[in-house]
Amino acid sequence: MKIILSITLIILAMNVSAQEVNKKIHDSVHNKDILINACTREGVTTFPEFKEMYDPLYKAYVPDAATMIELKKLIKNEKIKIVFGTWCGDSKVNVPNFLKVLDDLHFKQKNVEFIAVDGNKKAENGILDGLEILRVPTFIVYDKKGKELGRIIEGPKATLEADLLAIYQKKP
After folding, report:
1. What pTM was computed for the model?
2. Which segment of the chain is annotated as a signal peptide (predicted)?
3. Is residue 50 in a domain?
4. Residue 160's domain is classified under what CATH number?
5. Which residues span the domain enclosing 163?
6. Sequence-separated (6 or more) residues with CB below 8 Å from residue 94
């Protein structure tokens, strides 16, 4: 029994790791090509429809200096999951600005995960299971043990950096 379970776990792990990164599909909801599932930052920022807004918005966004000073004091080894849609206007605006904040914080790129969703806010292979994604983009901050610390959903209440600071300030 243990051998069968071990083999099953190995096969599942191989399927997850073999998942195509930066996969493109045609989304019937928006009738356009989109990214789906796990993506790299390069895949996101070079996807044609996303790139047209990404470059100018990223360059133009200037995070609040005082907020960034406070954030830098609190950042340790957390992880951030960005769930977004390449078709989504809010994602096209907030993902570049959020990445500008992370870059200015020197946040470790290896600790940022990108998941693209279709027009129904779904991805394949269960990679969104348990995340309860209702709107995109959703920025989820986790501690180093994988416990969710907080989220920014769709857009910030104040600014991205201020909302991120609020998440870090309530961290235990």
Report:
1. 0.88
2. 1-18
3. yes
4. 3.40.30.10
5. 18-169
6. 137, 139, 152, 154, 155, 156, 160
